[in-house]
Amino acid sequence: MFALLSTAGAVCCRTSSALRSGARGQEIGGDWTEPRGREARWGRAVGWHWGGVCSDVLSVVVRTHGGRLIMEVRASCLWVADHANYVAINAKAIEHVAEHMQGAVPSVEWDFEKIHFYDGGPLTAQYMLVLDAMNFCFWPDDELHYEHLARGLRNALVADPKAFDADRLQSYTGPMLRKLLNWPRELPLEEERARLLREVGSVLAKNFAGSAANLVARAKKSAVDLVELVAGNFPGFRDHTVYKGQQVFIYKRAQIFVADLWGAFKGQGIGEFKDISSITMFADYVVPAVLRAWGILEYSPCLAEKVDSQENIAPGSEEEVEIRACTITAVELLREALSNRTGEEVTSVQVDWWLWSSGIQSIKATDYHHALTVYY
Ligand SMILES: Nc1nc2c(c(CN[C@H]3C=C[C@H](O)[C@@H]3O)cn2[C@@H]2O[C@H](COP(=O)(O)O)[C@@H](O)[C@H]2O)c(=O)[nH]1
C-alpha cells in the first residue's frame, strides 16, 4: 500500500486534548433498567464533558475551512457526538489503541484487481462510479456481499465494455441488473440499485458527456471538489440528514468513490488528489462494529440490545445518526492520537482501510447494525 501522508487538521488535536483532559473515561456502570428518561441522560451521564470545547472546536473548523462540504461532515458529526444520547466515544479506549499500535497504522495491501475492474483509463472511473452508486446494504444477504458486487460488475464489463455506457445505464431494471451481475437471487433493494444506476446514466449523459472520467477531471485533482461535484450532481449520493434540528453531512459513497479511485490508480493520473487527506472515513456498518468491539464506541443499553438482536434501526433515526457520526468523529480522534505518537501524519482513509479490513476478517455480520438504506 502506498504511504499516506497528510496534514492532519488542527481541529482534531484540540478536540482530543480536550477529551484527554476531560473527565471522560470513567467506567460506564450503574443500573440501566430505568425508563427512556434515563437513556436521555445516558449520553451526558457517561461524561460528555466537551461542553464549551465542542463549540470552540466547531468555530475553529468553520473558520479555518469555511463551508466546504467535507468540513461540514466533520463539524456536523462533532456536533452530533456532543449531543448524543445513545452512543458515546471512549477517549481512554482511543488512547489505548493508539498506544497499543505505537502510533503506527498497518498499511493495507489491497489486491485491487483481485475483485475490481482496472484498465488504467477512463473505463475504470466509469466502473468505480457504477460500483459506488450501488455500494450499500449487503447485510440482508447471508452470503453475497460487497466483494460479489465488485466481481459481478468487473466480469460484466470485461464481457461487454459498453455495459456501463451512459445510455445503457439508463436502461437497467432490477431483473436486468441481476442478470448483468449473474446474481443467483434478488439483490437487497434491487430496484433501488437499478434506479440509482439509471440516475448515474442520465446525469453523466446530461452533464459530463456520458463519462465519469469527465466528472473526475472537472474536480481538477481535488478530492474535496470531487465530493462536492458528486453530491451536487447525483441525488443518490446525497447522504445527509437532520438530527435534533441540525443538518448532518456524511457523504459516505461520494467519499469512498474518491478513495477507491485514489486506491485503484495509486494516487496517480485519474486517481491523483492533492488533498486526499481532507476526506473523512466512510461511515458504513463494518467500522462502527469494529470500534464497538475495541471499546471505542459505547452504545446505550437499549441501542446495544437492538443491535445485538439484529433489530432494524431506522435510517435517519437519532440512534442511527449517532452511530454514524460518532464513528466519523472517533476515527478523526484516533487518527490524531496515532499521529501525535509518532509525528507521522496519517489520513482518515488509511485509518478507515485498516479498521475496515480488520473488521472484514474479525467481525461477524451479526455484529453489524442493520439499517435498510441506500447510503451505506
Ligand atoms: N468504511 C469502509 N467501508 C467499506 C469499504 C469497502 C471496500 N473498500 C475498498 C477499498 C479498497 C479495496 O479494493 C476495497 O474494495 C466497502 N465498504 C462498505 O462495507 C460494507 C460491505 O461490507 P460487507 O457487507 O461485509 O461486504 C458496505 O457498506 C460497503 O460500502 C472500505 O474500504 N471502508
UniProtKB/TrEMBL annotation:
<dbReference type="GO" id="GO:0006400">
    <property type="term" value="P:tRNA modification"/>
</dbReference>
<keyword id="KW-0378">Hydrolase</keyword>
<dbReference type="GO" id="GO:0016787">
    <property type="term" value="F:hydrolase activity"/>
</dbReference>
<dbReference type="InterPro" id="IPR019438">
    <property type="entry name" value="Q_salvage"/>
</dbReference>
<comment type="function">
    <text>Catalyzes the hydrolysis of queuosine 5'-phosphate, releasing the nucleobase queuine (q). Is required for salvage of queuine from exogenous queuosine (Q) that is imported and then converted to queuosine 5'-phosphate intracellularly.</text>
</comment>
<dbReference type="Pfam" id="PF10343">
    <property type="entry name" value="Q_salvage"/>
</dbReference>
<comment type="similarity">
    <text>Belongs to the QNG1 protein family.</text>
</comment>
<protein>
    <recommendedName>
        <fullName>Queuosine 5'-phosphate N-glycosylase/hydrolase</fullName>
        <ecNumber>3.2.2.-</ecNumber>
    </recommendedName>
</protein>
